Amino acid sequence: AMLGAGTGPLAGLKALVTSGPTHEPIDPVRYIANRSSGKQGHAIAAALARLGAETLLISGPVNLPDPLGVSTKHVETAREMLAACEAALPADIAVCAAAVADWRVDNEAGQKIKKEKGGLPQLSFTENPDILATLSKLNHSRPRLVIGFAAETENVIEHASAKRERKGCDWIVANDVSVDETGGGVMGGEENTIHLIRAEGREDWPRMAKSAAAEKLARAIAQHFSLSDEG
Ligand code: CTP
Ligand code: CA
Fold first, then answer.
1. In the predicted structure, residue 28 carries a pLDDT above the cut 90
2. Does residue 63 have an active-site annotation?
3. How far is the CA of 129 from the centre of ligand 1 (A)?
């Protein structure tokens, strides 16, 4: 049966999910971006909605359909993604799954940069706002549960735990994105190996489909709210 908003363990809660890459323009036809298919973030938004949360997905450019049961807002840049998140507050749950570009070009050209001009373009970079850290450090409108991702290629647990403390989020979903023994990468792939890192400790999940990982994370979120509402 279809679960509409208003039924399920997350009924009455509002969730915000970022997903996909951001694109940071160099000129009107070129950009820099991270590798991200958006599959994991989109699957999490769908899973939260299935459990009854009123879910807003804020997505960078991806080749995926908008998930059913979710309101989706499309953005391009990190600054647009942050503005869309802020506009969506208040929210109970924030899941930052987007692969936000850490830097943007601060001397973006208004016209296409032409080769004929000779020489090479001199790009100058500035740091983008950190959406996860910004949401985690809000005073009045901080979502009650803020979850970040950490895509790491080495020392996954150590780097991810440090990231949790630095960003001020509640949970970190740590993701080993090193190329695995079969030669297949996580980026763009269908599966993920996740460690869920919380203040209380860590859970190591077996390698599973991104859709299954999304379901498991949504269940952990529902469990968290059922425990915190009992007390
Ligand atoms: N993130 C964000 N805004 C940014 C950069 C990252 O919201 N400008 C979020 C990501 O969505 C993710 C988490 O922060 O949930 C960690 O992203 P990651 O790139 O692993 O961390 P960084 O702090 O950018 O560190 P680095 O890339 O140097 O490892
Ligand atoms: Ca980064």
1. yes
2. no
3. 10
7 within a domain of the structure (yes/no) = no
The enclosing H or E element of 168 equals: none
The residue segments making up the domain with residue 209 are: 14-108+124-230
* Catalytic residue chosen out of the listed positions 34, 63, 128, 139: 34
Residue 5 lies in a domain: no
Per-residue confidence (pLDDT) for residue 119, from 0 to 100: 84
Residue 231 to residue 223: CA distance in whole angstroms: 13
Q: How many domains in the chain?
A: 1
Q: What's the Cα-to-Cα distance from 146 to each of 134, 203, 218, rounded to whole Å?
A: 11, 17, 13
- ipTM score for this prediction: 0.99
Asked, for residue 94, whether it belongs to a domain, the answer is yes
CATH of the domain at 144: 3.40.50.10300
Ligand 2 centroid distance, CA of 84 (Å):
19
Residue 115 covered by a domain: no
Enter the pTM of the model.
Answer: 0.94
Query: Confidence class of residue 184 from pLDDT cuts 50, 70 and 90?
Result: low
